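Section 4.2 – Deliverable D4.2 (structural model, holo form)

The reporting period included a commitment to supply a predicted holo structure for the target in complex with adenosine-5'-triphosphate. Inputs used:
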Amino acid sequence: MRSVLIAARDLLARGHRQSPLKTWTAVVLMLASGAMLPLAALTTGTLLDAALAGQRGTAITTGVVVAVLLMGGVTLSHFAHIAYFELAERDLVDYDVELIGLANGSSGLDVHETPEHADRLAVLEEEVPNVRMAMKALMTTASLLVAMSLTAVLLAVVHPLLLALPVVAVPALLAGKRAEQVVDDARTAAAEPSRLARSAFRLAVSASSAKELRVYRLGADVRRRHAELWDAATDVLGKAHSKATLLRAFGQLWFAIGYVGAVLLVVWEATTGRLSAGAVVLVVVLAFQVNVQVATAVALLPALRRFAFVDQRMRELRAAVSGNEHERPGGAVPPPDRLREGIRLDGVSLTYPGGAAPVLRDVDLTLAAGTTVAVVGENGAGKTSLVKLLCGFHRPTGGTITVDGVDLADIGVTAWRERIAAGFQDFVRYEFTAREAVGLGDLPRIDSHREVEEALGRAGAQDLVPRLPDGLDTRLGTSYAPGVDLSGGQWQKLALGRAFMRERPLLLVLDEPTAALDAKAEHALFSRYAAQATRYAAECGTVTVLVSHRFSTVRMADLIVVVDGGRIAEAGTHAELVARGGLYSQLYGLQARAYR
Ligand SMILES: Nc1ncnc2c1ncn2[C@@H]1O[C@H](COP(=O)(O)OP(=O)(O)OP(=O)(O)O)[C@@H](O)[C@H]1O
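Output (C-alpha cells):
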C-alpha cells in the first residue's frame, strides 16, 4: 500500500511540474464528481418521501436536483478526463526523457553491465507506456475515495449497522490487493525470460543477423528458443493470473453476502415503521453503489500496483545510477592542456562488478606522450578492458593510472572524455545523416561541412561521400526511415571519421578499427594514422592506443604491448619483440606465413 501511495504522490508531483493548472483542475473536478452519485441517491430518497407525502413542490425541486447531480457526475469527470489525459501524455514524455537520462547517467559502464540493470531497463521500457492508465486510475481513485466516504456517512445516518457494509468490503479489497501482489511477483520472475525472448525475437527479425541465420540454418533454433522462453515467462504469469482471479472472485462473493444482508436489514426496519420508504430506496441505491465502488477499486488496483511497480523500478534505477559503489565520479582536476610525460599504469588490476576473477592483473606500463602504442593478444586476453580503463569507463580495482603524474581518478571524468577520441570495435551505426553520423564525434561542430569532411579525410574515408546520393546530407540506414544502407566497412569508415572529429585529443583510442575494412583501405589508413598521430603528438603529446589483430598494422607502433591472460606478457618495439622470440614473435610468424 505504501508503494502505491508513494507512486501516486510521484505521479501527481510529476504532473504538477508539467502543468499545475491542469493537475488542480483534474483533481478538483474528479473530487467533485465523486460526490455526485451518493448525493443523487440521497436526493432520490427525499424525492420519494416528498412524492409519497404529496409535497409536489419539494418533489419537483428534488427531481431537478437529482437530474443535475447525475449530469454533474458524468460531465465533471468528462472535463477532468480532458485535463488529465494531456497530463498523462506529458508525463509519458517526461518519463522517457528521464529514462534516457538515467540510461546514460553513469559516467562509467559498471552499472550498465549488470543483469539487474538490464532487467530494470527492460521492465521500464515495457511498462512506462502504461502511465496513461495509471493517471486515469489515480484520478478515478480520488473520485472514488470521496464517493466511498460520503456513502459511508449516509449509510451510518440511516442505520449504524449499515456501516458494516463498507467494512465487509475490506476483505474483498484485501483479496484484490493480494491478487495484484501475486501478479507483480510473477512479473518480476518472468522479467528475465521475457527479456531473453525479446532478444531472440530481435535476432530473428533484424537484417544484420539474416545472413548468419540462413547460412547456419538457425531460423528454427531461434524460433524454438523464442517459444521456450515465452513459454517459461507465460507459464509463470499464467499461473499467477489464475491464482489472482480466484482471490478476486472470493472477495466479490464475500461482499455480495454483505449486500444482501444490508438490504434485508432496511426492509425489516421499514416494515416495522422505523425507516421511511425514501430511506429504503436510499440504502438500496447506496448499497449498490458500494458494490460498484468496491468493484471499481479492485479493478483499479492492478493499474495502481502496476504503476507502483514502475515507480519503484524507476527509484531503484535512480539509486543505482547515482549511488553506484564501484563508480567514483572523478575529481575536479582538469586534464593537462598537453601531455608532457604520458600515461602510467602502476600495478593496475581490474575485476568487473560481480566478476569472480580479475581480467587484468599487475599491469605496469608507461604510455609515453606523443607515442603510438599497439596492444595485441589473443581473444579475451584483456585488450579492450585495458582501453576501457584508460577511457575511465571502469576504475581499476587495484593500482593506479596517472596522467602526467596526476591520478586519473582525480581528473574530472567529463573533462577527460572531452580530450579522448575513440573508434570502438563495436561502433554504433547512427541512422542519421552522414554529416551527423560523423559530426557527433565533436557535437559543437556537428554542422560544419568542412570539418566533417576533414575528419573523414583524416580517417581515410574521403572516398565515401561522393558515392552517397546526397553527399553528407544522405540519410543513413533503413531501420526507422527510408535511407541508404551501407556496407560494414563503410559504416566503420564513418565511425573512424567520428573518432577523428576531435582536434586536440590527449588519448586517441582505436580498438580494432579496421576489422571491417579491405586490405587496400587498411593500408591507406595506416599511413594516414601514422601522419595523424605524428601531428597530434606534436600539437598536444597525444598517446595513440591501437588495438589490433593485424600485425602489419601493429609493427609501425613505437611500443607494442602483448597482453596474455590479463597480464602484460612482453612489451617493446617490433624489432625487439621479434628478436626476443617470445609470444609476439610466434604470433607474428604465424600471420606472416599465412600472408606469404
Ligand atoms: N563487462 C564485463 N563483465 C565481466 N567480464 C567481462 C566484461 N567485459 C569483458 N569481460 C571479460 O574480460 C575478459 C577480457 O575481455 P576483453 O574484452 O578485454 O578481451 P579482448 O582482449 O579485448 O578480446 P577480443 O580480442 O576478443 O576483443 C574476457 O574474459 C571477458 O569475458
